[in-house]
Specification:
The protein is an alpha+beta fold. It has a single domain, classed as Nucleic acid-binding proteins (OB fold (Dihydrolipoamide Acetyltransferase, E2P), Beta Barrel). Helix content is about 20%, strand content about 35%. About 10% of the residues have low confidence.
């Protein structure tokens, strides 16, 4: 009986370890197009009027690119999604239905609709 309990315990531990050892998947990079606006706080930005069927605005959590020269431009942003719970920990990040860490931007037009 002790051998059966020991075997079940060993198998359970091995199973738990296997589940915990799964490789973590990194967020996938994606691109979205819209208009760059200043946020309410200094040095904060958001993308509004986002094209497509998804969210219509994006709160920018961080950006590798300098966004200031592109305020008011139509841009394409590329980056990874940030979970709302993580993004909203920083009260400076503009509230939005979608949040991103940007790796690059591309200006599409000097004006926005």
């Amino acid at each position: 009986m002790k051998n059966l309990i020991s075997a079940v315990l060993v198998i359970s531990c091995a199973f738990a370890f296997a589940i915990g050892a799964r490789p973590q998947t990194a967020p996938k990079e994606h691109s979205m197009t819209g208009c760059l606006k200043k946020g309410a706080e200094a040095d904060t930005y958001m993308v509004t009027d986002v094209e497509g069927n998804g969210p219509k605005s994006i709160g920018i959590v961080s950006s590798a690119a300098n966004l200031a020269p592109h305020v008011g431009h139509k841009i394409e942003v590329t980056g990874t999604a940030v979970p709302p719970a993580e993004a909203e920990k920083d009260p400076k990040v503009p509230k939005a239905p979608h949040y991103m860490k940007l790796t690059s931007i591309k200006m599409l037009s000097p004006t926005c609709p």
